[in-house]
Sequence to fold (264 residues):
Amino acid sequence: MQTLTSTHHNARQMPQSISRQRSYWDARVYNELRSGSWSLADLHQKIDLPAWQPYLERLPRDPYVAARWKRMSWLMLDDTGEPVALPYCPMAQAEAFNDAETMADKLRHYAPLEERFLQRQDVIEFIKGWAGLWGIQPGEPILMQINGVRGTALTDPLQGQGIHKDGSQFLSVLVINRENVSGGTSLLSFDKQGRQEILSGDLAPGEILHIRDDQIYHSVSGVTPFDVSLPFERFIIIINCRFNDPFQNRILREHFPGVVLNEW
Fold:
């Protein structure tokens, strides 16, 4: 992957509680998140990507984004540090974080992640490892999505959203499938215009990009097939927590009165 690092360096000390689940991530990941706002890692040895593929085939269509398929669930850690699925709650993003016409300032309703997927041991360990990386505490809502695009013609996975933040403090993107894909290039930038570029490159299946979503912007380019006679597909997991979006926090509080929210 090609990386282009801006001369600006956005450093912030990570909380001490981030030391939990250290065995899941290389020390390099923690060092990069201490000194900057992002890190790229490879999870091939920790997850069984071929076993995850059938779950992609059963994804329903996204009713808000053309040519996209999606499921999402709200999770949290219980008092023992184990992930549990919360009851249904819609996704909500204010226009400040999502200015796409089909998604801004709307409640979006999606089918939940399959229970069999969430019960897989490699998925459980991934969620625990991710929560430990960021120091997520029991009771904090975690949003986990599987989504992706497939088709035969140029597709914008973001439907015009462009360079953006998701409205949380901590965000990671894990690529789980990339077949016959040209494009789908991940971009990180310190500004919404993309002039202060940090990274531009194509993530392979098994690679995960950790992002301080409250400090930097991200995007992905349009997708087309290499071989125009065959369809393409690219699917990812997005997982994030500690929301800065008051709209999302209000909806979370309505559905889960007892959860721990990032409210100020």
Observations:
- Residues 121-134 form the longest helix (14 residues).
- The helical segments are 27-35, 49-57, 115-118, 121-134, 246-255.
- The chain has one domain: 25-255.
- The two ends are 38 Å apart (CA to CA).
